[in-house]
Automatic annotation (TrEMBL):
It comes from the Bacteria. This is SARP family transcriptional regulator. GO terms for biological process: phosphorelay signal transduction system; regulation of DNA-templated transcription. PANTHER family: TRANSCRIPTIONAL ACTIVATOR DOMAIN, TRANSCRIPTIONAL REGULATOR REDD-RELATED. It comes from Planomonospora sphaerica.
Amino acid sequence: MLTDSTPAVTVHCLGNFRLEINGLPVAHWRAGKARALFQYLLVNRGRLVHRDRLHEVLWPDSDDRSSSSLKVAVHAVRRVLGAHEGDDGFRLVHQDHGYMLQAQSAWVDLEEFERAFQRGRDLWAAKEHQRALECFQTAADLYTGDFLTGEASDWINEQRQWAQGVALRALAVLRADSLEREDWPAAMHWCRRIISLDPYHEDTYQTLMMMHGELGELGRVRDWYELCRRRLRNDLDTEPTERTERILASLTRRGGRPLAPALA
């Protein structure tokens, strides 16, 4: 049920793509490139994109800029939006040999994610660390999956890598804060989130090994070490650094150091 505070348009790009207009899901795009056109214009919302650039993005292997394919895709997008439009719905505008997507009221998870992270950075620079952490937490919560999961093109991969980098920076701050407070469950949670995005982040494996060592869980220390070594060796043809090996040897030699009961 829509309320006065409910955005007319809701778009999820982090994870599987979903679009709702006036509470109704949009599932049928008619033309093959219509959805891809909408997605690209959405990321560039409010900016005019020249038609040549749209041809490059949607048909990267074609040199024919006079093809009617773009007009067909534009028409299909307009039919989709027209079937769901309201006073605050999306509008696809044509001007100066290009197209622009406009919306008076829209909630886009990617934009909210970027906004939360930037707000966190600004607050951190202003020494308002607690409020900054809340913003980084919001950004982490919004990052429910990679940008347009399951879809592929050069521009999508570029945007995906950028968004993933932003998420990793937010997660790194949250991990550091948890470690400073010695909140081991939270720190482990953020570490596992980091590894889910970057399975070769050796520093995070080292952190997990040390935390489990502090808890006296030597089996888990060995498990994380072996996972790190296997991924580095099989996927990157490299070995763990000397620091990782020293951490393993030190924890194994002294048998870990259990935490106080209140923290275990």
